[in-house]
Design goal:
Elements (H helix, E strand, L loop, with lengths): L36 E2 L3 E5 L5 E5 L4 E2 L5 E3 L5 E4 L19 H9 L2 H12 L8 E6 L1 H18 L4 E2 L4 H16 L3 E4 L1 H24 L1 H4 L5 E2 L4 H10 L13 H16 L7 E7 L3 H6 L5 E2 L4 E2 L3 E4 H10 L40 H12 L4 E7 L5 E8 L5 E9 L1 H15 L7 H8 L3 H4 L20 E5 L62 H6 L10 H11 L13 E3 L5 E7 L14 H4 L20 E4 L5 H29 L5 H9 L6 E2 L5 E2 L3
Parallel strand pairs: 7-9, 7-11, 10-18, 11-14, 17-18, 20-21
Antiparallel strand pairs: 1-4, 2-3, 3-6, 5-6, 8-19, 12-13, 15-16, 16-17, 19-20, 22-23
Helix pairs in contact: 3-4, 3-16, 5-8, 5-11, 18-19
The structure holds iron/sulfur cluster.
């Protein structure tokens, strides 16, 4: 079975480092009477056939040893049963790949896209499909950061204009059109806009039920974000007691699937099965998400998203086709044209939603509450364990009454803490694996164990206020740091064979780089990214081989690229300074407040800590932070004002189009609510697995 060349075990390391053991929780269905040991210590030994035995170590006497056997070394021991791990047990921790997952991933690879495109060329009118590609903003940011870093490392000057996501989108569109024959390429931010609207609606529904108290309030709040399939997969398999709290709103990828197949396809005269939808995402988990049964259209026997590829796979496709993404394409700096008539299905591009680079879910709720509030609200934030776990509180200015408490929680370890906290607050029994599953098995019983339903408003300054919402993401740093993103870039030597100062150097001889395919130990196997120095080819391609996934500095650079506004000006003005490492760290200027989308401040320590936002519709200017360094200017230049005006126009366009999409898809009759559920919401499944636990049915 052939994997995509872009896929390696380290690529899959989304949120648990490879050094950690598989944490699949084990539930022992028919527990044996406890064996007692005197002297306490036992050891596990492996015999020549690979069987495992538990043996008493020296001085220990094992009692109750009913199944003792003699191993090949003559020790007495108990043969241990081999653990069976199937796809159903997998927590998508990326510590291993099961064969079933490998089939799924093989079916969703860049090779599969090439195969489809080849076969589609020769297809008859009846079987021909319309290829469509959608790309998330995080892959665009990853590509932009990578191109900027490469440009900086090869630039002789100290500054180079940053490549923006807008430019990258145009270049990807050109690549798809000219090299692949895909004419329809969109970014997914309009789908995210729809998802955020639905998400707000769901939050209001849950809040209303929570207010009722009693049975109706059970499992409603805190609402937990649902856009991250890594988190969903983990919750379904290890913490099913959390499922009632998870938002039912589809992720932007799946909303894009609905948009492409059900709405745009219809306008273009294609049924869903006649559209082939490729999605470019920052992680491998999105492949598993697209494969869920819930997103399969039984009527047309097709999926909302036919194939998911990662940023790395898209880059691989370009390399295989000999396409240089560093080359500008005509018109890439032009302003985006707006839809000229009401019938147009053109989508607004790269809509920036203020908040986080992982979807801005929490900030969209905060903004919504501020907009709807009759009194001014103050937003404050507090970093908990680290920057990836931060609490946000909205209080009534003056009285200090807390009206909302939310958190951003990224990374697997933070996520486990939040699960425990929510369980404690809501009286749900949580424990990793079996205990959690047992709690969840009761299904409706989740609610029965609730200590106290309803978060209510507090007048204690928010100290004991329960969470109303948590933006949960499995990757540390969020989606900009997804496992499918590009690796950090190492500055190239100035010219082959010369060092930084221009002196001739033999890089192989000096041990700086390795001959191609040779590891540190001299073996001719693939280099190990974590220990081996980069190869000549790697250096020449500008890709660091010893760079670790999750490098914080690199994540900040991708984050900075994410927030670059590339819609109007070449970014030379803002000026990305090439730093010592040769990678571009953006210095970005942003103005505005949360209400007009004029500034997209990511949730972060400096973004909200200690700042106060006015309530109602009169939010004062807010300092924002994009990645590493942001300067906020109060005296906006005309270019900035133009960009700001364009963002507002785009937002209005998006709102208007969203209304139209909803009306056309869902109708306005009695079936509207049912249709809305069908097109924009989903379900989660915790089911019995054959090993006695609960697991996901893909
Ligand atoms: Fe994928 Fe984002 Fe979740 Fe990471 S945080 S697994 S990139 S959806």
């Amino acid at each position: 079975m052939a994997f995509s060349g872009a896929l390696t075990l380290t690529d899959l390391n989304d949120f648990i480092s490879p050094s950690q053991a598989c944490i699949k929780p084990v539930e022992q269905a028919d527990k044996k009477p406890e064996e007692k040991y005197v002297g306490a210590k036992t050891e596990i030994v492996v015999d020549s056939s690979g069987s495992y035995y538990e043996v008493a170590s020296e001085g220990a006497v094992q009692l109750n040893n009913t199944s003792a056997q003699i191993d090949n070394e003559g020790s007495t021991g108990t043969k241990l049963e081999q653990a069976q791990i199937s796809l159903n047990d997998c927590l998508a921790c990326s510590g291993c790949i099961t064969s079933a997952e490998s089939i799924l991933i093989t079916l969703q690879s860049h090779a599969e896209v090439f195969t489809f495109l080849d076969s589609n060329k020769d297809a008859t009118e009846d079987t021909k499909k319309l290829p469509v590609l959608s790309i998330a903003p995080q892959p665009l940011a990853s590509l932009a950061a990578s191109l900027t870093a490469s440009a900086c490392s090869s630039s002789s000057s100290s500054a180079a204009p940053p490549i923006t996501p807008h430019q990258v989108l145009r270049r990807v569109q050109a690549f798809c059109r000219e090299a692949l024959g895909i004419a329809h390429v969109f970014d997914t931010t309009f789908a995210r806009h729809l998802a955020l609207r639905e998400h707000l609606l769901e939050f209001e529904e849950r809040k209303a039920k929570d207010k009722l108290g009693g049975e109706a309030a059970q499992g409603q709040l805190p609402m937990l974000a649902s856009a991250c399939p890594g988190w969903i997969c983990y919750a379904e398999k290890a913490h099913s007691e959390m499922l009632p709290f998870i938002s039912r709103t589809k992720s932007p990828q799946q909303v894009m699937g609905t948009l492409v197949k059900e709405w745009m396809g219809k306008h273009a005269g294609f049924t869903p099965d006649k559209v082939y939808h490729v999605s470019v995402m920052p992680c491998y988990d999105k492949k598993l998400e697209a494969s869920r049964q819930d997103f399969y259209n039984d009527v047309y026997s097709t999926r909302d998203v036919d194939c998911v590829i990662t940023t790395g796979e898209l880059e691989l496709m370009m390399r295989e086709k000999g396409w240089d993404l560093a080359q500008p394409v005509p018109g890439e700096l032009d302003e985006e044209a707006e839809a000229v008539n009401a019938e147009s299905t053109a989508l607004p591009e790269l809509i920036q939603h203020a908040g986080s680079s992982s979807g801005s879910y929490l900030m969209s709720i905060i903004e919504h509450l501020q907009r709807e509030s009759a009194v001014p609200l103050t937003l404050s934030s507090k970093i908990m364990r680290n920057a990836d776990y931060e609490e946000f509180t909205l209080t009534v200015a003056g009285s200090g009454k807390t009206v909302f408490k939310g958190a951003k929680c990224y990374g697997f370890r933070n996520l486990q803490n939040v699960v425990r906290k929510v369980g404690r607050e809501r009286g749900v029994r949580t424990a990793g694996g079996a205990a959690g599953r047992l709690a969840g098995r009761a299904g409706a019983g989740v609610g029965r164990r609730l200590k106290k339903a309803g978060g209510g408003g507090d007048e204690d300054g928010g100290k004991d206020k329960q969470y109303d919402y948590v933006e949960v993401m499995a990757c540390p740093g969020g989606c900009v740091n997804g496992g499918g993103q590009l690796k950090p870039i190492l500055p190239k030597p100035q010219e082959s064979g010369a060092d930084e100062e221009g002196y001739p150097r033999d890089w192989v001889q000096t041990g700086v780089v390795l001959p191609e395919n040779e590891t540190e130990m001299g073996a001719t196997t693939a280099p190990r990214a974590d220990v081996d120095p980069p190869s000549v080819a790697a250096i020449e391609s500008g890709v660091v081989m010893n760079a670790k996934w999750g490098d914080k500095d690199w994540t900040r650079r991708v984050e900075a690229a994410y927030w670059l506004d590339g819609s109007l000006e070449p970014m030379g003005q803002a000026g990305v300074q090439c730093d010592e490492e040769g990678s571009g760290g953006a210095e970005i200027k942003m103005n505005g407040g949360p209400h007009d989308l004029d500034a997209p401040p990511p949730l972060g320590p400096s973004a909200a800590r200690g700042r106060a936002m006015g309530g109602g519709r009169e939010g004062p200017t807010v300092s924002g932070r994009a990645g590493g360094r942001v300067n906020v200017k109060s005296d906006a230049t005309s270019a900035e004002r133009r960009r700001s005006a364009q963002r507002i126009r785009k937002k209005r366009w998006a709102e208007k189009l969203a209304d139209r999409v909803l009306k056309e898809l869902c109708g306005s009759d009695d079936d509207a609510v049912k249709n809305r559920q069908r097109f924009f919401r989903t379900e989660y499944h915790a089911v019995e697995s054959d090993v006695g636990g609960l697991a996901v049915k893909w």
